[in-house]
Amino acid sequence: MNDFQLVDLVSQRAAVRDHLRGKSNEEILHWLAARGQLMRQDVSGRAHFHFESPAGRRALFFFDEGDLVFVGDHTTFV
Q1: Which of 10, 32, 69, 74 is exposed most, by the fewest CB atoms within 10 A?
Q2: Which domain range does residue 32 map to?
């Protein structure tokens, strides 16, 4: 897999999705963990993940049928 400079997971989500197409959830988590801080938290029986890039940009997301679903203020988006 080619190197990918991850600065902000939310704003780069389309490029990240393209870059990781065909990868399993575990492979995606491994890839993210190699590029920042990744923490797991179970909420209502579902695994949510907190990611912080080296630039300090944070993202909260979960997986839904293979898609990364991001959680923002009063919204969720893919």
Answers
A1: 74
A2: 13-77
Q: In what order do the strands lie in the sheet with 67-72?
A: 37-43, 46-52, 58-64, 67-72, 75-77
When pLDDT is cut at 50, 70 and 90, the band that residue 3 belongs to is confident
How many folded domains does the chain comprise?
A: 1
pLDDT tens column, 34-45: 999 999 999 889
Q: Are 68 and 61 in contact (CB under 8 A)?
A: yes
Which tokens hold the place of 12? 């780069």
Cβ within 8 Å of residue 29, ≥6 positions away: 38, 49
The verdict on residue 7 lying in a domain is no
Cα 61–chain centre separation: 6
